Amino acid sequence: MSGLPDRTDVLVIGGGVIGTSAACRLAEAGVGTVLLESGALGSGTSGTTAGVVRTYFPGNPLISSLAVRSLAAYQDFAERTGTDLGLERIGLLVLFTDEQQVQDFRDTHAAQQAAGVDVELVTAAEAARINPLVDERTVLAAAWAPEAYACDPPAIVRGYAAAARQAGAVLRTETPVTGIDPDGLVHTPAGSIRADTVVCAAGPWAGTVAAMAGVHLPVTTYPVEMLLADAAGSAPRDALPMTMHPSSLRIRSWGDRILAGMGRPGPDETRDAWLQRVSHHLGTTFPALAGQGLEHGWSGNLDVSPDGMAFIGRDPSRPFVYAAGFSGQGICQAPAAGEIVHDLVLGKESWIDTAGLSTARCPAVPAGTA
Fold it and tell me: Which residue of 3, 155, 171, 176 sits 20 to 30 Å from the alpha carbon of 236, by its own alpha carbon?
């Protein structure tokens, strides 16, 4: 591998779906772009999720609007480049177990529709028809959003990385950032490079990277583990929709098995106790899965913001742009995030008011550092 260039217009730190999306967007716009990744491309948060691109985010039409735009961008990217992103429509079913959840849906339905989300309230019986594993006696109603797709996150990262390289971007893996000087000189074990603008898309490490540049980015890490269970003999042959329960349990088909997620053990909870808790919720909501053994699938860390919504913005005192804190939803928002980063770098007016995405919304941020 050759050494780093002496300088670049933009240096993107992070080679997951957010970083490669931003690098692709910038390079295709003719901006000199270098991307640095501390490990392999897509080896961080991008490989940790359940691999679903969805447009409906309950209670948050702003995230939904980013997701709607992103889904359209994925479909356009796949058609334009011939890249197979593994998109397969499976739909999203969000179960409601109390009246307040149903009322919250009704209160935000118009805003979700205005954001471009196709979602409707369905009865418990209809929810059980959409996902036959659901015990309709355990739910009051559900939200059904057909525009949700299983996807291949590594293929998305590879696709954006290839397109970025083709447009002239330089991508360097196994190249961690060790320091960022106030004048934009970025240090790595492979040498130093001066950037007119630094873009931080480092996922769980975003807070550490930002701190190197003197920027406060309140992103923390949240560990998750995905589990696999055998499908019951009575499970339908067709792919099940992504189905979310208020307990935070979520399942979907994974080949001929069931993929389940519900975070990780609490601070004072053993893994066995957590698995028992997951198994209880699984068997209660989806009786056909009661007693099914749970096996480790994969695990990793998510980059999480205090309110669960991503931070995308530009520091007011230095040429530093950030896109982090996606809280497990980055795969659903990456194309839109890359577009916003592009606009922030070039000083262009974005398609959306980005004020609500900046760190200024977080009260924990010290004055003058948002």
Answer: 155
Q: What's the CA gap between 180 and 263, in Å, rounded?
A: 33
pLDDT of residue 231: 83
**pTM greater than 0.90 (yes/no):** yes
Cα(178)–Cα(198) distance, integer angstroms: 14
The CA–CA distances, whole Å, from 110 to 63, 94, 117, 123, 309 equal 15, 17, 10, 19, 20
Tell me which DSSP letter residue 362 carries: -
10-residue averages of pLDDT along the chain (370 residues): 85 97 98 97 86 94 96 96 95 97 97 97 97 95 97 96 98 97 94 97 96 95 93 70 95 93 91 94 92 92 93 95 95 98 96 91 52
Residues with Cβ within 8 Å of 249's Cβ and at least 6 positions away in sequence, in order, are 260, 261, 262, 278, 281, 282, 285
Q: Report the run of H or E that residue 208 belongs to, with start and end.
A: helix 206-212
For residue 363, with 0-12 CB atoms within 10 Å meaning exposed, 13-18 middle and 19 or more buried, which class applies? exposed
Backbone Cα Rg of the chain: 21
Q: Are strands 250-254 and 242-244 parallel, antiparallel or unpaired?
A: antiparallel
Matching residue, tokens 């995905």: 226
